[in-house]
Amino acid sequence: MGKNIKVIFGILIILVLVNAVASVYFERFDLTQQQRYTLSQPSKDLIKEVKDPIIVDVFLKGDFPSEFKRLQSETRYLLEEFSAYNSEIKFNFINPLEEGVDAQIVANNFYKAGMMPETLNMNQNGKVSESLLFPWAVAYYDDKSVQINLLKKKIGDSNEQIVNTSVENLEYAFADAFSKLIYGKDKKIAIMRGNGELPEKNIVDFVGKLKEYYYIAPFTLDSVTSQPQRTLKQLTEYDLILEAKPTQKYSEEEKLVLDQYLMQGGKMMWLVENTAIEKDSLFTNPDNATLAFPRDLNLNDFFFKYGIRINTSLVKDVISAPIILAQGTGNETQFNPFPWNFSPLAVSNNSHPIIKNTEAVKFDFANSIDTLKNGVKKTILLHSSPTTRLEATPLMVNLEMINQKPDLESYSAGKQNLGVLLEGEFTSVYKNRILPFEVNNYAETSKETKMLVISDGDVIKNEFNREGPVALGYDRFTGTTYGNKEFLMNAINYLLDDTGLLAIRAKNIKLAFLDTKKVAQERTSWQLFNMLLPLIVLGIFAFGFYTVRKKKYIKH
């Protein structure tokens, strides 16, 4: 008896000591092969100095398919990791569709707030039904708030693929939101004006997103004729320039200013096209037709020197976004999608952080881009599918083309480059040439810098409805959200060397899911197995127990 008391007493002492040590030294161990529950160093660096509470409200709660329950649980695990590293990170899970709430009203409220609900098709036991999902969170810090999209999906992905991609993106999504809440802006972007760029109303959605991270200001090259040196000096005060679909020729003076800006280490994003055609013309012209013709921006030598050539031919792609046409009149009007091969859905084969886990980017009347050897590193970020066809311009384009079934044999041009990232040391366009004006400290070779060229200005263009601008990349008629905004935002982050967050995107996570088809097929068998196996085991145990007792207690 005394010996047992000593053992119990010893165990209690050990437990007290373990708890005392644990209260001083805290450690969590991630035993998963992919380190799913370990925060990346950029995430830790981001939140380690936070002294005031960051409150996160997560709306991923309710009745939805089991795959998305995984997304819910993985979101909780990740937030627990953030909270364990810094206790000022606090979170709540909220069900937007509590009993008695009108689901349509809730969905409309989320939509108006810029958080698109998702309608899911649930397939359980062979029965298909719909479920409403709100894959969003909102983080609050001081008097600021940020919306966080928890769902990442690509066209054609299964629910399992969507959830896996979403889980891979979770840490980036939360770290990005925390970064916007915690830190101020320190870099400046010039939105170029004066060469027929897209009107402000057509880039307002993306510029609004940029303002969350950077200082934004319009900049014009109009004064270059009278004060070129001063214009160049003012331009170099910006970290990046954004050229959104210029339509007017550049003078040699303007090109020299842009060239020397690049030589001094400035970053550039060009959304430029060498063909003049607007989709709106198909609807405003009585014949529903318009002419596509080459556009001369006087930039051919500019880009050629840097290592690319933007062609004047149009890319037609079997893998493309539909065109939406109205049918009927008055209250009976219906908006229906039709195949439209002039709107390629661009993707990438590489895992570059700009494009990783990003939905296909929608183009309209894109040109192909050739890359040239010149010592500058070139990364193809966006390309068409292999089933493409190049249409030489001038070309008459009309809506009757929706009735023409593609001849796949003629769509044999292969993948066409639509977005190219250039990095390294660039050579000046004006090397060994007479300069349009005298430049102080003219540079023939640039510092290490970056440039992104996209062969369609409409990639950044947002649409409008009665309530104002529509979110960039969102098609209100089909409910599809393309990857335009996210791709462009990632590109800006990368060009400006905000690579800490982008590094988090490289984290690969693979979740194991049940094969739902196999489960449905073998459902009855497994139900019987789960019912009968315990009974059989219990019967064997009872028989053995009875046999032992019989041998032990029955006298012979």
UniProtKB/TrEMBL annotation:
> The organism sits in which domain of life?
Bacteria
Sequence intervals crossing the membrane: 528-548
Locate the DUF7088 domain: which residues?
Answer: 33-139
| Domain named ABC-type uncharacterised transport system: residues | 187-491
A matching Pfam family: DUF7088
Keywords, comma-separated and alphabetical: Membrane, Transmembrane, Transmembrane helix
Q: What is this protein called?
A: Gliding motility-associated ABC transporter substrate-binding protein GldG
